[in-house]
UniProtKB/TrEMBL annotation, chain B:
Gene3D superfamilies: MetI-like. Its main location: membrane. CDD domains: TM_PBP2 (cd06261). It holds the Pfam family BPD_transp_1. The lineage of its organism: Bacteria, Pseudomonadati, Pseudomonadota, Alphaproteobacteria, Acetobacterales. It is found in: Cell membrane. Residues 96-305 form the ABC transmembrane type-1 domain. This is ABC transporter permease. It is a multi-pass membrane protein.
Length: 343, 319
């Protein structure tokens, strides 16, 4: 009620509130071995028409975070233990299923990691895109199929009118990921979440898909939350970067700041591990991988979770968990090496 | 597609021939003779008996008899029953509709139980509903049909006297009363067969649905904002039907086996009970013909399953 009354006057100010604002999110899974703290205090914001990359090693909770935004994790065993997921100012966490369904695809599109298995093999791609459109826009079957063909054309699939009648197995991996993107964008969402959309693809196809995402963003103007474990991808597409480690955000900055002055020792390690052409040409081409392994999310260590692998670790690091603090304008780090920035 | 069906039918011919050879040999080697009774009957003179045997070709070698049977069969002459002297094709045609009606009704019942229960159980794994359904399915699947059949007769016919325990093909009533009596006498055989198959299929459906439910495309369907009902029906059950169809087709011989036993228990005058009585009387032409009909039905249902399979799964191509 009050929201409806506020809406018109708040409209100009609304553009400054982030489109997506995840605060203190904790998602835990109950398993036979105990509670897996897959996401344990994550803050991510994405503004309108902005590309935010979430980066981190395998198992650090990227997929769980992304799926939780649309409540696509299995509950049970999963549970949102704490936190808020504000989309256009409205918290999605307490939203009932019926309301949640109106957000999915319509407001927030989702592209999954595995194009080979993410489409239903028994329906044509046209039917699958049309189904989404019909659900949210009440179009007729005919009109929805036309939209499907239009979307295929948009994502540069040749012969869209004919291809809508093909089944997923008649497409290559890269083409299927284009179909997934077409489907995710078919209702013109304000935010597109892409969970490692290129990881399962050939290297040559990866670049094409990233280019396509960029092109779509230019044309349709949606925000993109891109999840990846490749720093190279981050450098190419991101405006802002969120670095995750063992279920927590350890650093957040603009892409320029992150690559120019990475603060967190983990981020520094990640950046050092990018293969670089110039270095490769001169000295021995060696990737500097971060030594050690990710701690278990079952019983995460007290204090900084990176301590076991950090070359700057000191007793204070394991005494208490370092909070995520702003150390320079717009640059947040969770590490005790950096004093809080006070404007 | 038509090509595929024709090819499958052609492949079926050698299997049918093989079945007939094995069956014929086994019957020829088996002890017992349709003329045993006549042989001990002093009223029939030995020369008449010998002439009868010769006219039926009973003294020829097995392979001669087999080929004369086969050529007659191919000409459409199924011979006649040694026992009742009625043409075998007439015997079978008179009894086949009853068998098909009982089997058909029981399979509809089985599917009507297995589909909803299996899907509900799989979508709520380890819930109370799932555990009760699982337990009942296990019990239903473990109890042999002759046991449940006798149990039902004991309860509903003898103790409660609600249902007739002998199935009659010669109901004299007409119109609605006929239908009423028909249904009353069909309840128990249909229930026995249907519940048994329903229990088996519930387990199939449950495990097929559980396999599909964790696939990525189901999460995609949810991410599209579809209601849970559409996700389950269109993206889970629809895909789970593919393996279920195969399993159901593979079960057809079991279904016919169950039908034979059930017909025997309830004295249903179908081809199953015809087969049993023919076996007891060494009535070779009837045994051969009925077995052939069952083999033909099994082949037909397998073919049907293949066709449905291809229709359900666009990845299959019949080339
Ligand atoms: N349904 C579940 N039940 C139990 N644990 C789960 C479940 N889903 C995810 N997890 C756990 O949550 C943790 C984070 O997983 P997640 O898939 O988010 O990692 P990720 O960062 O996406 O890794 P990757 O780069 O490999 O995709 C993992 O340790 C995983 O075992
Ligand atoms: S808090 Fe300590 S252990 Fe953790 S990253 Fe910073 S210096 Fe390393
Ligand atoms: Mg992942």
């Amino acid at each position: 009620m009050s929201e409806a009354l506020l809406a018109p006057s708040a409209a100009p100010a609304r553009d400054t509130t982030p489109l997506l604002d995840i605060r203190g999110l904790k998602v835990h899974f109950k398993t036979d071995d105990g509670m897996v703290r897959a996401v344990d205090g994550v803050d991510i914001t994405a503004n309108r028409a902005e590309t935010v990359c979430v980066v981190g090693e395998s198992g650090c909770g990227k997929t769980v975070t992304a799926k939780t935004v649309l409540k696509l994790i299995d509950m049970p065993p999963g549970r949102i233990v704490a936190g808020e997921i504000r989309f256009e100012g409205r918290d999605l966490v307490p939203l009932p299923p019926a309301e949640m369904r109106k957000i999915r695809a319509k407001q927030i599109g989702f592209v999954f990691q595995e194009p080979m298995t993410s489409l239903n093999p028994v329906y044509t791609v046209g039917q699958q895109i049309a189904e989404t459109v019909r659900q949210h826009e009440g179009l007729s079957r005919r009109a929805a199929l036309d939209r499907a063909a239009e979307m295929l054309r948009l994502v540069n699939i040749p012969n869209p009118q004919r291809r809508v009648q093909d089944y997923p197995h008649q497409f290559s991996g890269g083409m299927r990921q284009r179909v997934m993107i077409a489907m995710a964008l078919s209702c013109n969402p304000k935010l597109l979440i892409a969970d490692e959309p290129t990881t399962a693809l050939d290297v040559t196809i990866q670049a094409q898909i990233l280019d396509l995402l960029d092109e779509m963003k230019q044309r349709l103007g949606m925000a993109v939350l891109l999840i990846t474990h490749a720093m190279g991808v981050v450098a190419e597409v991101a405006q802002r970067v969120v670095v995750m480690y063992a279920g927590k955000v350890v650093e957040e900055a603009t892409v320029e700041a992150l690559f120019a002055t990475p603060r967190h020792p983990y981020t520094q390690g990640l950046i050092r591990s990018i293969p670089r052409i110039d270095r490769a040409a001169s000295v021995h081409a060696r990737l500097e991988a971060i030594p050690g392994t990710v701690p278990s999310l079952l019983n995460p260590p007290v204090g900084c979770r990176f301590a076991a692998r950090c070359r700057h670790a000191m007793p204070d690091c394991v005494a208490a968990e370092p909070p995520l603090r702003e150390v320079a304008p717009g640059h947040k780090v969770a590490c005790i090496l950096y004093p809080e920035h006070r404007p | 597609m038509t090509n595929y069906v024709v090819r499958r039918l052609l492949i079926a011919i050698p299997s049918l021939l093989g079945i007939s050879v094995i069956l014929f040999t086994v019957l020829a080697l088996a002890p017992g003779d349709p003329f045993e009774e006549l042989a001990t009957n002093p009223a029939i003179p030995p020369d008449v008996r010998a002439a009868l045997r010769a006219s039926l070709g009973l003294d020829d070698p097995v392979w001669t008899r087999y080929f004369s049977w086969l050529t007659a069969m191919l000409r459409g002459d199924w011979g006649y029953s040694f026992v009742s002297r009625v043409n075998v094709d007439q015997l079978i045609l008179a009894r086949l509709p009853t068998t098909l009606a009982i089997i058909g009704a029981s399979q509809v019942l089985a599917l009507a139980i297995a589909l909803p229960v299996g899907v509900m159980a799989a979508t709520r794994p380890y819930s109370v509903f799932d555990q009760v359904a699982n337990t009942l399915a296990f019990i239903g699947f473990s109890l042999p049909t002759f046991f449940t059949g006798l149990l039902l007769i004991l309860l509903f016919s003898i103790t409660l006297d609600w249902l007739p325990f002998v199935y009659r093909a010669d109901l004299t009533s007409t119109g609605w009363t006929w239908w009423g009596e028909q249904i009353r006498q069909s309840i128990m055989p249909v229930a026995v067969l249907g519940l048994f198959q329903g229990a088996a299929w519930t387990r199939f459906v449950r495990s097929a649905v559980l396999d599909v439910i964790r696939l990525d495309h189901v999460t995609t369907a949810r991410a599209k904002g579809l209601p849970e009902g559409s996700v389950t029906l269109r993206h889970v059950v629809r895909n789970a039907l593919i393996p279920v169809v195969t399993l159901v087709a593979l079960q057809m011989p079991t279904v016919f086996g169950g039908a034979i036993v059930t017909e025997q228990i309830f004295r249903v005058p179908g081809i199953g009970s015809l087969l049993i009585s023919a076996i007891l009387a060494n009535d070779t032409p009837v045994i051969m013909a009925v077995t052939f009909v069952f083999a033909g039905l099994v082949i037909f249902f397998n073919l049907l399953a293949d066709v449905i399979y291809g229709w359900l799964d666009p990845r299959i191509s019949y080339s």
